Amino acid sequence: MDRFIPNRSATDFNYAHYMLNGGKKKVEEDLNADSCFGMSSPSREEYRRQMAEIFNMNRCRILAFKNKPPNPVELIPQSHSGSGTHHSKPTKPRKRIIPRKPEKTLYAPGLVDDYRLNLLDWGSSNVLAIALESKVFLRDPWLPSDEEDEEDEDTSVLVTIDDQLVTSVSWAPDGRHIAIGWNNSEVQIWDSTAKRKLTTLRGGHSSGVGSLAWNNQILTTGDMDGNVVNNDVRIRDHVVETYRGHTQEVCGLKWSPSGQQLASGGNDNLLHIWDNRRSMDPATQWLHRLEEHTSAVRALAWCPFQGNLLATGGGEGDRCIKFWNTHNGACLNTIDTGSQVCALLWNNNERELLSSHGGFTQNQLALWKYPSMVKTAVLTEHTSRVLFMAQSPNGCTVASAAPDETLRLWNVFGDPQVAKPAPKAVPESFPHMYRTSIR
Q1: 108: Cβ contacts below 8 Å, ≥ 6 apart
Q2: To the nearest 10°, the Cα dihedral for 137, 143, 147, 150?
Q3: What 8-state DSSP symbol labels residue 146?
Q4: In this structure, how many other beta carbons lie within 10 angstroms of the beta carbon of residue 353?
Q5: In this predicted structure, what is the pLDDT of residue 18?
Q6: What region, left, alpha or beta, does residue 261 occupy, with left being phi > 0 and alpha being psi -120 to 50 degrees?
Q7: Where do the domains of the chain lie?
Q8: What pTM value is reported for the model?
């Protein structure tokens, strides 16, 4: 292990032979002789230096044990075009073109103009649900309008109660069952495939139910009195928890993607964050009570790429989008949009946020880059405030509805063919509850 074998390819054999035969000693003697005869001078010293370099007098190695390091190898060869003298330019990422016109416009006559209600939702089975006064319509949004007749339109009506008003709709994660809130404090759960009512949830509220949010088998409902109720739809005594923090109508409810935190916004300008992992104190059962908004808080959107990031929007007297760290309740940023914020949606594939607005003649949808909050697009087809928005299952298309009696589909979040697939919803069925319920 201690032997060193010379590298013959790097050895100077001529120089080695010369030095072994006394060449270095001869040169030194000649130079010293000149010095003894008084021939030392600057020019002579320069001559001596050059002679030493020529004969490598400072060189002490004869054998070489290592070659020079090789030239670096091009690991990724560059592509060449034509004769090979030109390098191809790196391709730039394709810039996404955001259409300024909707892909489709559907009529929605009788859509109630009420900021406190939630009347539009898009299920995981790609069916839109929209409430028009006392009716709930189900529709495949891509069905050509000119191929529909009156019979088809009648079959898309899921439920009608003439003397009642629909105040909220929300699809269950399985895309088959749908919850419907009414102004008489009842909540119904329907099977959309069989077009059959499965149960009615009573006793949790004493006023109209304007907000709904699913968390697996838990249906959370919010009423006009400020109460938030968790209902386990699998059991007869469905009320499992009640949150009391709002003093006026609950305008918005959204569970976080993890299902651990619930955000509730109210007409009392309050935003509450509730955590289902901690035991609740009846006096202060919320995790955070946030009072920075100066108007009703209806627009709520949990960030898909950061679990503790929540975006909220304020009403006509506030006009701001705020971002919150829900772990500590800190307000991270505030943007004044100049108009009432009605709804918010995150892009699942890019760091973007879509907001819908009303009032101050700005009835529009606005697309923002996050976190810079630079506005990249404005969509202005609606002629009244854009109260409701819903996102398609693949996350690319957005449906917007307004009291101008139109429902518009926008390809605002990208091409479905290149976008990342949306996560599949976990099917949840409730057969035992449906068979045993008699309410």
Answers
A1: 130, 132, 401, 405, 406, 407
A2: -10
A3: G
A4: 23
A5: 60
A6: beta
A7: 104-410
A8: 0.74
